[in-house]
Design goal:
The complex is a heterodimer of chains A (293) and B (319). With 293 residues, chain A is mostly helical. Helix content of chain A is 71%, strand content 0%. The two termini of chain A are 43 Å apart. The relative contact order of chain A is 0.13. About 3% of the residues of chain A have low confidence. With 319 residues, chain B is an all-alpha fold. Chain B contains 16 helices and no strands. In chain B, helix 7 crosses helix 10, helix 12 runs antiparallel to helix 16 and helix 15 runs antiparallel to helix 16. The chains are: A mainly alpha (293), B mainly alpha (319). Chains A and B meet through helix 1, helix 4, helix 5, helix 6 and helix 9 of A and helix 2, helix 3, helix 6, helix 7 and helix 8 of B.
């Protein structure tokens, strides 16, 4: 009875597996299509119709053109700057906040925490924030994308929960040995919370990598544009003109198509590469955030 | 808040200590911690509470020369201008419809996926499906919409499939009647896997003996799912539902902004995108701030209402 499955159970299981397989295909196929298209020979690709199950020919011309484009290179470097500097600041700020708000016997921590959590439910909105950033003189500077995004409340809650989980005994013995709060934070708490730090690096890093709206409203100077804003021009406003400058007449049309796919790949690959390494951590991070609070 | 703490303190301590004395002692003991919290508090004061101060321009005629404080008051003029304006009905209707689609289709999708994944007995298969469905969460909205534009264009992938089966090509991104479908289904595509994590965590906390008992009583897999798993995750569902209702009007404005075009404004233009166009593009700061404030107020009231109803009819509440 236990081991042999009934008919309805077999039906239940197969329907379930088939649906999940379909979902996986629908999720994965767009990425495969983009990958295949990006390494296809431009001329062959243009003539192709319908579903692509394998690259049409093989050519890395599209990638070469993407990497020869000064707009892309410039914005790529800018994005790397935003990710590295932004994420470093995020981790530092979040760790400081999480440490202070997770210590016992700090008189104002409850009040401060309440005031911080309340900001999750209301804000001044787009315009007052824009005027604030403008009045601070941050418009059209790198800092416009870094300082106003110095930390997020949700990540603060996750890190604080993790810090609370570090055994008190460790902190107490360090204190007896004369350790200051700085030492306890940087020598004990953070090394013991590395999985959560990894999650935070992933969350904040991806956030900065993918951000475009802040750049749209705070930046006019193209030299400061992050990759996503250039991507928007190429992919959505369909403006591949900036990509064409280096090709001669006849080649223009076909390359324009595959170049879009190569651009998507270039913008997405760093995340897809990091993904398997960080995956085991991030599920943990979401759960920590979910359990308490 | 402070007063309350003080009175509590008095009743507990035999020897009453004055509030200022306690505060001074606390500051001496924890001065390093307060120093650490200083940048954090300053950040929240400036970038979260600062804009609340700036929100007063919704009731003023803001001029850059006079500044926020000195600009003249005009009362509810911008609000009534918005309520009586041509765009009011359109943006409010679109916001409500897209918000409702989110609630009806996108929100339950993660729950269904979590229930389905939970029924998979094969661990490696389950892991693989999970890993695949998480990926789109990490892809930028620019790339997602870029792929949509491409796949849905007149000579794109989807239309090739449609014409292969004898249909007529559809210009999806330029037809207002398709906008809501595309917005909602792509939201499911991007978020369903990631959203399921939290429910799977809740499922793993359900007491296994409940399933054993149900089996003894003759409940099949379907019955177990409906009568044990689903009630088991109900508190999680309700908490997330309250939060979702609390951001009912806060759609993915950024995604809509990048997805829509003047041809589809009819169904795509929402309060958030209207605020962007009036405020950032046309520099009508006061009017835009008023429209944005109207949106936040409704959200906040929905949050309070949802929490109240949940407290009233279930035991679950946010506060």
């Amino acid at each position: 009875m236990r081991t042999s499955k009934s008919v309805s159970e077999v039906l239940f299981d197969s329907a379930n597996v088939i649906l999940l397989c379909l979902l996986s295909i629908v999720t994965l196929y767009p990425f495969l299509y983009v990958l295949f298209a990006s390494i296809s020979t431009p001329a062959d690709f243009v003539q192709h119709r319908g579903i692509l199950l394998w690259p049409k020919g093989f050519s890395l011309d599209s990638y070469r053109m993407v990497f020869e484009n000064p707009n892309i290179i410039r914005s790529y470097l800018n994005t790397i700057f935003y990710v590295v500097v932004g994420t470093t600041l995020n981790i530092l700020m979040t760790a400081l906040g999480a440490y202070g708000l997770s210590r016992k016997n700090v008189m104002w921590k409850g009040t401060i925490m309440m005031l911080i959590v309340m900001t999750m439910f209301f804000d001044g909105g787009l315009i007052p924030k824009y005027l604030l950033v403008k009045n601070m003189g941050l418009l059209d500077t790198y800092w416009a994308l870094i300082i106003p995004s110095a930390m997020t409340t949700w990540n603060l809650i996750i890190m604080r929960t993790a810090f609370q989980g570090v055994p008190d005994a460790l902190e107490e013995s360090a204190r007896i040995d004369g350790a200051s709060d700085w030492t306890i934070l940087f020598r004990i708490i953070i090394p013991l919370s590395l999985p959560v730090i990894a999650v935070m690096v992933l969350f904040y890093g991806v956030w900065h990598w993918n951000k475009w709206f802040d750049a749209l409203i705070y930046l006019r100077d193209r030299d400061l544009f992050p990759l996503q804003l250039i991507l928007r021009e190429i992919l959505i406003q369909n403006d591949t003109s900036s990509m064409m400058t280096s090709v001669g007449g006849g080649d223009r049309m076909p390359v324009g198509e595959t170049i879009k796919y190569a651009t998507i790949m270039v913008a997405t690959l760093p995340i897809l590469f990091l993904y398997p390494f960080l995956q085991k951590y991030f599920v943990k991070g979401v759960m920590i955030g979910a359990i308490k609070e | 808040m402070q007063l309350k703490e003080e009175t509590n303190h008095v009743t507990i301590q035999s020897k009453p200590e004055r509030f200022s004395a306690r505060a001074a002692k606390d500051f001496r003991r924890n001065s390093t911690i307060y120093l650490m919290l200083l940048p954090v508090v300053a950040f929240y004061a400036v970038f979260h509470y600062g804009p609340l101060y700036g929100l007063q321009i919704a009731f003023k005629n803001f001029s850059a020369g006079l500044g926020i404080w000195n600009s003249p008051w005009v009362g509810f003029q911008h609000f009534s201008e918005f309520f009586n304006g041509f765009f009011f009905e359109r943006v409010v209707t679109n916001t409500i419809i897209l918000g409702a689609y989110d609630l009806i289709f996108v929100f339950p999708a993660s729950i269904v996926l979590a229930l389905m994944l939970n029924e998979v007995r094969h661990r490696i298969f389950k892991r693989t499906v999970q890993s695949i469905t998480y990926i789109p969460h990490f892809i930028s909205v620019v790339v997602v919409v870029g792929m949509l534009v491409d796949f849905l264009s007149v000579d794109g992938l989807i239309n090739h499939i449609i014409t292969y089966f004898g249909g007529k090509p559809i210009s999806f991104m330029r037809l207002p009647e398709w906008f809501r479908t595309i917005y909602t289904s792509s939201a499911i595509w991007q978020g369903v896997g990631w959203g399921s994590i939290i429910y799977l965590a809740a499922i793993s906390n359900i007491d296994p003996s409940l399933y054993e008992a149900a089996k003894v009583d003759g409940a099949g897999r379907w019955k177990q799912m409906l009568q044990i798993t689903l009630p088991g995750i109900l508190p999680t569902v309700i908490i997330l539902l309250i939060l979702r209702i609390g951001s009912f009007m806060a759609l993915q404005d950024e995604k809509i902004l990048i997805m829509y075009n003047p041809v589809t404004y009819e169904t795509a233009d929402v309060i958030g995108t209207y605020v962007y166009r009036k405020g950032i593009l046309e520099a009508s700061y006061s009017f835009s701030a008023a429209v944005g404030m109207f949106n936040s107020m409704i959200n906040f009231m929905l949050l309070i209402g949802a929490n109240y109803l949940s407290k009233r009819f279930t035991d679950t509440k946010l506060w």
